[in-house]
Every structure is written in C-alpha cells, then in structure tokens.
Amino acid sequence: MDASQIIFGLTALLIIFSALRVVTTRNMVHAALWLIVTLLGVTVLYALLQANFLAVVQVVVYVGAIAILFIFAIMLTRREMRDGGPQLNKGWPLAALISLAVFGGLLALLYNAPVSERLAASLEGQDTLGALGQALVSPDAYVLPFEVASVLLLAALIGAVYVALNKKQESDK
Amino acid sequence: MTAYNSTMILAILPEILLLVLGVLVLLFDVVWKGEKRRALGWLTAGGTALISIVTLLIGRPGEPQSVFGGMLRFDWLGFAFKQIFLLGAIATALFMMDIEKLSRRGQAYALLLTATLGMSLMASAADLVMLYLAIETTSIPLYVLAGFLLDDDRSAEAGFKYLLFGAMTSAVLLYGFSLLYGFTGTTSLTSFVGSLPLALGLVFLIVVGLGFKISAVPFHFWAPDTYEGSPTPVAGFLSTASKAAGFAVLLRLFLTAFPQFVEQWAAVLAVLATVTMTVGNLLALAQKNIKRLLAYSSIAHAGYILIGVVAASKLGVASVIFYLIAYLLTNLAAFGIAAAFGRAAGSDEIASYAGLSRRSPGLAFAMLVAFLSLAGMPPFGGFIAKVLVFTAAVETGWVWLAVVGVVNSIIGLYYYLTVLKVVYLYRMEGENEEQYPIPLTRPYALALTTLSIAILVIGVLFAPWFDSASLAALNLF
Amino acid sequence: MMAGTLPISYYLGLSALLFTLGVLGVLIRRNALVIFMSVELMLNAGNLAFVAFARMYDMLNGQIFVFFVMAVAAAEVAVGLALIVAIFKTKRSIDVDQMNSLKG
C-alpha cells in the first residue's frame, strides 16, 4: 500500500460521507457546506488522476461559484436555516429501492465493462495544459463546442438577468 | 492545423444566422421604445423565415460529411430537422406577439432563437461533447421561457418543474455519455463495440435523458404541468420543436451507436411506445383544460412517433420525419388557437369553448382542421403520417405494435371529437354569441391560416415531402 | 508516479456510488435546493468517471468534456437558482410537494 492508495481511500470515505450528509441533513446551510466538502474531495481525485487543470477549474467554478450561489439562494429563501416539517416525500421507500436498483445496475455494468485493471502510463512530461488550450481553439477539434458554450453562457446570463430584474420591478411597485 | 473552409461555414449557416438575428433582436430591444417594440416579433419571425430561405437556397448539404473535426455531420437528416425547427420558431414568434408581457420583451425572442440554435446543433451533432452542449443550449433558454411570466404563479411553477426534471435527466444522460466514452475510448458517435448487457445498460441511461425531451412515459410527469403553466406559445414550441429535436438525437444516436443491437433496443422502445401511447390517451380522456388535453395528446403522439423509430428501417426513419413535420404544423396550430382563445376569453377550460363556431367561425374552422389532423383523419397531414408510421412497423414485423397504435388512434379520436362537439354543437348559456366575438390579430391570422393550409397541403400532396424525408433517412443507413 | 498503482475500477466504483447518492437525494428530498444539490452530485459522478476514463486511455478528450460540463453546470445553476428564488418570492415555499397550483 503506497501513499496514493491511502490518499484515495481517505478521500473516497470523505466523499461518500459528505455526499450522504448532503442528502440527509435537515440544515440547509450544512447541506451546502457538505456539498463543498464533496466537491473538494472530487478535486483531490482529479489531482490523483493528473487532471491538474480540471482540479483548478473544479475549485474555481464548482467550489468558488456554484457552491457560493447555493449559499446565497439558501439565505434568500429561508428565514430559518433549519428546514422544518417532513424532509422526505411520501414515496421515499420506493425511491430508496430505485436508487438501490440503480446502484446494482451500474455495478453490474461496470463489472462487465472492458476497463483495464491498471491505470495507463502517466501523462507526465507532456504539456497537457498547452495541448488542452490548442484543442479548444483548433477548427478540427473543439472550437465549435467552445463557441457554443459561450452562446450558452450568454443565454443563461440573459435569462438569469431577466428573472432577477423582473423581481426588482415587482417590489418597486 | 487545418484552416477553416467554406463547407464548415455552410454546415453551421443556420446557427450563425440565428445568433446574428438574436443579437439584432437584443439591439432593437434597446433602441425601440413603447408600441414599436411589438415589431420585435415581426423581426424575429421574418428574420427566421429569411434564414430558412437562405439555407434552402445556399446551405444545402451534398454528400454527407463530417466537419469541425467530427463535431457535426453535414447531411440531409440534420438539414431536414433544422428546417422543421426554423418553421416552429417562426410560428412561435408570431404567436408570442400578442401575449402580454412576452411580446415586448426582447429577451423572450432572443431566448427562443438561442433554443432554436441549440436544436439545430442537436440535429447534426456527431460527437458526445457537441451533443451535450447542444441539448443544454436548447434546455436552459426553454427553462426561462416556460417560467417567463414570473408574476404568474403557475408560469413560475411550470418553469421550475421543467428545470428540475431537465436537470435530473440531463445528469443521467451525462452519466450515460461518460460510460459510452469509457467503453469506446472516443467521444465521437461511432459504432459501439461491446457485449449486449453493456449496450442495454447504456441504452437505459440514454432513454431516461431523451425520454424527458420527447415526453415519453414514464418521464412525462413534467409535461402536463409545464404545458398548462407556461405561456401558451412556449408550450406549443416545447411540444413540437423541442420534441422533434429529441427524436433527431434518438434516431442518430441509436442508429449510429448501436446498429448491431437493433433488435434489443427496438424491443425496449416498443414497450416504451406502447406505454406512452396508452397512458397519454387514457389520461387525455379525463382532461377539462385544453392545454392539459393537448399535453396528454402530445405524450400520446410521442408514442406513435416512437413506432417509426422502433421500425429502424429507411421507411421507419422517413416516417418519423414526415410525422414530425405533420405533427409540428398541427400541434402548433392547436396551441396557437388555444393562445388566441385564452387571450380573448381568459379561460383555457374546454367548457368555455362552447359556441366558438358562432363567436369566431374562422378560429373554429382552424380548430376543426387541427384537431381532425391530430386525430389522424383524412385528408389532413396527420392521417398520412399515421399510415406511414404503421406501415413501417408492419413492414419490419412489428404487427402487434401497429395494432396497438391503431387502437390508440381510435381512443384519441374520441377526445378530439368531444372538443369539436363543444366547439360546434354547444351554445353559450342564454347568451347571444355574436356579441362575444374572438378578435384575431394579424400575426395570429397569418400564422393560423398558413398552418391550416399547410396541414391540408401535406395531407393531399404528400409525395414531395415524403421524398425529402426519405432522402434524409438515407443518411443513417 | 504514485497514481499508477490504483486500478481504474476503484474510481469508477466510487463514481457509481456518488451517482447513486445523487439519485437518492433527488428522489427522496422535498426541498428544491437540496434536490438541485443532489443533481450536482450526479454531475460530479459523471465528471469523475470521465476523468478516470481519460486517464485510462491517456487521452485529453475526456478532460475537455468535463471542462464543458462545468461550464454548463455553472449556467444551469445560475438560471435554476434564479428561478427557485423567484418562485419562493411568490409562493413563500420551495417544497416540491407544495407545487400544486397545477393539478390534473
């Protein structure tokens, strides 16, 4: 057992525990904080998998932006941070059963899958960041998705601004 | 590094023009003030019509080819679907013009155009990255459009439900994509090599994601609520263009990635089709609200269209495309009528349609055409479409599925005729209907007249349309 | 390099478990925000699988996919949370079981 296995084991436990807390906790702010822990755990795994760039983006976009947005939304929608009343909907036993089936199905799928036992050779020594940047703007690679992503972000911006401003006008009345 | 060439530009010509038009709309949204802003709708509809004409003239594909490093396929299949979406956007823009709070907002038209752009990319995407981005570019503007009337409880709720279901199913779809990538080693849509259980697992994950888009049972829960609460023209767009985009992806994905497992996934989809038709039709029987009725009817139609996908033959694919054209014209007309009536009468209840034939003979006649076409009556487009789909099923040995389809069409006939009975035979209680006319504004009159004529035309002169659909279908085999 | 000693299947198993937890959260919770957080868990599970596969094939395309997914997730969350806050202003609740002004 070497260092990477220990790191992976600890991170995996942390991810599972914190994800479970996100799903089960009554306190909304705690849920958001546990979500951040999960996201950071995933970041560690990205680093282990040598996706260094993605690890950074994960911290900036997911932890820095998405999780913070969640906390804002919680503050704006709750006078009380604790969520009173029943947490689970009526069909929860069925839902739990479905989830179990999903897990079983996925495991069976992965068990049958042609995945190699070991990780492939390391990407070390390659300029992954440079290659990534090249690929994103190359016409025979990812330039079109890249442009479409910018259109998507613009549309989301227009939509979100519309929704937010509309509320303001309403309260002005 | 290869350079750009003209084929690449031609392949995304509609998308580029849609983006330009969207920016123009936002620009004029700032420049135009007051009553002038109504012209935003004319600008959107006219611009989209122009885009359609321009692409028909100069943007036609030749031999199918991959562009942008395999991100897109430039072929007739994508081209045909793009024209379908553009048509849907034109009609929707016209219908949006007289919905208060929607018509004078440039954002609404810009979001409509972005969603159309996303659909166009969905129809030609040949890479999982492109496909995922295209699906999201379609969905995110539609979430906002469905909830556009934020002051209205029901609209906000509609957008919200659509968003929650959409986010969940796209996460499932993404997981399916990640496994598809993992088992093939490439993100481009290539033939999947692997064992049957593996393929079936992937098919399930993908069906969840796309089942939402086409509103197939059991992924349909959002549809009635979202259609009822959304602004009516948006509901029409969701039930036609958005559904067509889902089918475009379904066809390309399954026929490209899993051709060797066709028997197995066809069986899965056959079950899905049966359940979808039956549940949609049975629930439609009990509806009192016209938009909910149309929602369940649109679920049932997703079932009929799935029959063509199950056939998985050239005729099957062609019948799917033809059905989608006929269904788009018909259902847009139906939702347009509901929008015009709801605006004037302030109600979407079927009972309030009593006496419509006297209040507005024109609207009532358009409704007759649309509903008979939905029911699959000759000589309207819906009839030919159903015949083609059922023929495709019989030809490939799915006789029982065709029989289920026919039985379901008969159930469907009942509730469509019930609505027409209210329109033509019932009277407003103790009132003189002529005193309550339903005024039709110019955009509505234009759109409804064109759609009604088109429904008749493709029902009578179906050969050229079917030939185009067959040409597009060839690209998958 | 130390990561070379871990079989890829560990990562995939973890991603499957994370995905399942996300599905569980989506299906059992009533609070819209928690449901949305659970969707993020599902997305992260997908991303983790992508990165692991990208490592297995020693190719960048999986990583690029994840990059785009993150952009999409950010857009989706911005629009989604705006809508959730808007609906809270009118309904004073974000409990999905109370979303019942649409019935049938």
Protein traits:
heterotrimer; A: 173 residues; mainly alpha; Four Helix Bundle (Hemerythrin (Met), subunit A); 2 domains; 6 helices; globular; C: 104 residues; Helix Hairpins; 75% helix
| Percentage beta strand of chain C | under 5%
Number of helices of chain B: 19
**Neighbour order of strands in the largest sheet of chain B:** 1-2
Shape of chain B: globular
Number of structural domains of chain C: 1
Pair with the most extensive interface?
A-C, 90 and 75 residues
List SSEs of chain C in N-to-C order.
HHH
Number of E-type strands of chain B? 2
- Let me know the largest β-sheet of chain B: 2 strands, antiparallel
- Bin the helical content of chain C: over 70%
Q: Please give the oligomerization state of what you see.
A: heterotrimer
Poorly predicted tracts of residues of chain B: none
Number of strands of chain C: 0
Average of pLDDT of chain B: 90
Rg of chain C over CA atoms, rounded to whole Å, is 18 Å
Quick one: overall form of chain C? elongated
Structural summary, described in words:
The complex is a heterotrimer of chains A (about 170), B (about 475) and C (about 100). By secondary structure, chain A is mainly α. Chain A folds into two domains: about 1-80, NADH-ubiquinone/plastoquinone oxidoreductase chain 6, subunit NuoJ (Four Helix Bundle (Hemerythrin (Met), subunit A), Up-down Bundle); about 135-175. Chain A is about 75% helix and about 0% strand. In chain A, helix 1 (about 5-25) packs antiparallel against helix 2 (about 30-50) and helix 2 runs antiparallel to helix 3. The longest helix of chain A is centred in the C-terminal third of the chain and has 30 residues, at about 145-170. Chain A is globular, with a radius of gyration of 21 Å. The mean pLDDT of chain A is about 85. Chain B is an all-alpha fold and about 475 residues long. Chain B has a domain at about 275-475. Chain B has helices spanning about 5-10, 15-30, 40-60, 75-95, 105-125, 130-145, 155-185, 195-215, 220-230, 230-255, 260-285, 290-310, 315-345, 355-360, 360-375, 380-395, 400-425, 440-460, 465-475; strands spanning about 65, 70-75. A two-stranded antiparallel sheet of chain B has the order 1-2. The longest helix of chain B has about 30 residues, at about 155-185. The radius of gyration of chain B is 21 Å and the shape is globular. Chain C is an all-alpha fold and about 100 residues long. Chain C has one domain (about 10-90): Helix Hairpins (Orthogonal Bundle). In chain C, helix 1 packs antiparallel against helix 2. The longest helix of chain C has about 30 residues, at about 60-90. Chains A and B meet through helix 4 and helix 6 of A and helix 5, helix 6, helix 7 and helix 8 of B.
